[in-house]
Design a protein that fits this description.
There is one protein chain. The protein has four helices and two strands. The protein is mainly alpha-helical. The chain folds into two domains: 44 residues; 35 residues. A two-stranded antiparallel ribbon has the order 1-2. Helix 2 packs across helix 3. The longest helix has 26 residues.
């Protein structure tokens, strides 16, 4: 099978076709996949490990931003609002 060389990486045709035909997971263009593979290579991680770590870091950053917002804007009324918004979830068992 001939291989394609893009941005210093060698991708086999099977890799290219699997990106186009994948049904699950996120879909990337060939250029995006090349960038992701390059970033994973620089970090000395597999592509899957790199994507999972990146998603974890993004989620952690979002939670930290919510925490900072809560700390900066804390009031007794905010706590009461959160408490009252929590009660329906407790009663539903969510």
């Amino acid at each position: 099978m001939p291989a394609q060389r893009m941005a210093g990486l060698i991708l086999s045709n099977s890799t290219v076709s699997s990106v186009k035909s994948s049904r699950l997971g996120f879909r990337t263009t060939l250029e995006q996949e090349v960038v992701l593979r390059r970033a994973a290579e620089v970090c000395h991680k597999s592509l899957t490990e790199f994507i999972v770590d990146s998603a974890y870091q993004a989620a952690e950053n979002a939670l930290m931003e919510l925490d900072r917002n809560y700390i900066d804007n804390w009031t007794l009324w905010l706590n009461m609002k959160i408490l009252f918004q929590t009660i329906p979830s407790i009663l539903k068992g969510v």
